[in-house]
Amino acid sequence: MRHLIGGLRATLLSTVALALLLSASFSRAVELPDFTKIVAQQSPAVVKIIVEASASGGGQNINEEEIPEFLRRYFQMPDPPQGPQGPQERMATGSGFIISDDGYVVTNHHVVEDADVVTVRLSDRREYEAEIVGLDPRSDLALLRIEAEKLPFLVLGADDGLQVGEWVLAIGSPFGLDYSVTAGIVSAKGRSLPTRSRENYVPFIQTDVAINPGNSGGPLFNLKGEVVGVNSQIFTTRAGGSIGLSFAIPVNVVRNVVTQLKEGGTVTRGWLGVTIQNVDRNLGESFGLDRPRGALISQIASDGPAAKSGLEPGDIIIEFDGESIETSADLPHVVGLIAPGTEVDVLIVRNRKQKTVEVEVGGLDADDSVDQAYRGSGEDSLRGGRLGIVVEEAPEEMLSRWDLAGGVVVRSVEPESPADEAGLMPGDVITAVGSTPVRSMDTFREIVEELEDGASVPLRLIRRGSPMFIGLRLKE
After folding, report:
1. I want to staple 283 with a disulfide (CB 3.0 to 4.6 A). Which of 202, 368, 393, 471 is the partner?
2. Domains 269-364 and 379-473 alike in fold
3. What residues contact 225, with CB distance under 8 A and at least 6 apart?
4. Contacts for 308 with CB less than 8 Å, ≥ 6 apart
């Protein structure tokens, strides 16, 4: 009898435990999002972009040899033309989405760049040849227009509504596989991915959504079915596949660019006219900050908005138009979205004190370049013993070319010296120590001699053509 009761008790406990486990599993399943309604409602407004271009043109070409044999029939890749006559043509694909019922379509700039013919294919397989309304390579966005009416379209979400950890969904045509749906979460916001021209105007959304070639230009949705971004870039395997790192252009940038392209075909951004760098721990200490933060101005364009407002090299911007600037990458994101001619308050740190400066933001057109390059050499040497460097007087030719009032060139750096620990390199041109400009070898010597033991001081210099600051700490 005891054995029977014990067996019943064990069975009952096992049944209860199994029920609890199933209940917990069911609860977790219930908490997972259901994407079916979003896909059904929003897919009709997602389109496939088909680009025809010469073989030498841009766009997003797919190498058929890298495609597994069992997938090649899905790629809709035309056979290459035969014979030596005439330029070869190629076809590439991407994604996009309709934003108005009268035919405006958003996609990536790199999808339609250098295209001869752009075709937009709808989910019901209707096809329209598209007009390129405008291109913006700085944001990697393009606006197209097709001649159609009463089209399904997508709604752009709120500018600041997206949160890290939130579920997101992508619809597109990866590798030509039309209307593929993938989902994941927002991994991070405000990611900086500078372009080849070292510009950085897009605070990318990072996700773990599976994005592959062909998804470019497609929409990223939140669980409300609103567009929160445009899929643009991925980190890939050697073969070009997704590794779970994808990047989308946030909706506030999309809205700004699309509005300007629709109105005038080009995009003008806010422009400050400064070269900036990040503030590390050494620089933060040398400038008197409580922690590393802000964008340090290393150079100012003559007659630019910053110069006219009274900003100076060595100023650290910690707030711009009410937006906190934690890293140097934050500043272009904020400035670029401000309309040229707008007056804003800029909070800076200068000489270890906070100060507010009023700046009228300038304009940077699509074809403008803000890159500046410097080269030079010098003669006449002097050893800066406390810093551990050998320097030479900067020649007049170099000062004139770079529009400098003075400076000294680093010729060698002693191992384990303060300069070595700070990262100074031969060829660096020191133009200021702290807030004091270096006019000549004599002034450099005097400045170094007056520095206190153990002091942390910023050096302004030019390295490989780019102005920058380095924080240096003297030995006790």
Report:
1. 471
2. yes
3. 37, 38, 41, 42, 155
4. 360
- Tell me the torsion sign for CA atoms 335, 339, 340, 346: negative
**Which residue in 139, 225, 151, 145 sits closest to 181, CA to CA?**
225
Residue 150 in this model has a pLDDT that exceeds 80: yes
CA–CA distance, 262 with 99 (Å, rounded to integer): 12
Find the range with the poorest average confidence among 93-102, 108-117, 232-241, 277-286: 232-241
Within 32-53, residue ranges assigned H as helices are: 36-42
Other C-beta atoms lying within 10 Å of the C-beta of residue 75: 16
- Sequence-ordered list of residues with C-beta below 8 angstroms from that of 235, at least 6 positions apart, any chain: 243, 245, 246
Name the residue type at position 168: V
Token code pair at residue 143: 């606006």
Residue 127 CB coordination number (10 Å):
13
Q: What is the CATH number of domain 269-364?
A: 2.30.42.10
Is the domain defined by 379-473 classed in CATH 2.30.42.10? yes
Structure confidence at residue 11 (pLDDT)? 53
**Cα(472)–Cα(449) distance, integer angstroms:** 15
Domain ranges across the chain: 40-264, 269-364, 379-473
User: What is the C-alpha to C-alpha distance for residues 97 and 225, in angstroms, rounded to an integer?
Assistant: 13
- Residue 85, classified by CB atoms within 10 Å of its CB into exposed (0-12), middle (13-18) or buried (19+), is exposed
Would you state the structure tokens that stand for residue 58, as one six-digit string? Answer: 């841009």
For the residues 231-260, what does the mean pLDDT come to?
A: 84
Determine the Cα–Cα distance for residues 314 and 20; give it in Å rounded to an integer: 63
- The backbone torsions φ and ψ at residue 276, rounded to the nearest 5 degrees and listed phi first, read -125, 165
Assess contact for 246 and 207: CB atoms under 8 A. Answer: yes
Q: Per-residue pLDDT tens for 4-44?
A: 455 545 555 555 555 555 555 545 555 788 999 999 999 99
Q: What stretch of H or E contains 403?
A: none
8 Å CB contact between 312 and 297? yes
Query: Residue 42, exposed/middle/buried by CB under 10 A (0-12, 13-18, 19+)?
Result: buried
Kindly list the catalytic residues: 110, 140, 216
Per-residue confidence band for 197, with pLDDT thresholds at 50, 70 and 90:
low
Farthest-apart Cα atoms in the chain, separation: 108
Q: Among all chains, which residue has been given the structure tokens 């272009």? A: 332
CATH code of the domain made up of 40-264? 2.40.10.120
Q: What is the pLDDT of residues 198-211, one digit of tens each?
A: 677 899 999 999 98
Task: Determine the pLDDT at residue 143.
Answer: 96
Work out the average pLDDT over 297-316: 88
What is the DSSP pairing of strand 343-350 with strand 323-324? unpaired
- Residue 292 is encoded by which pair of tokens? 């590393």
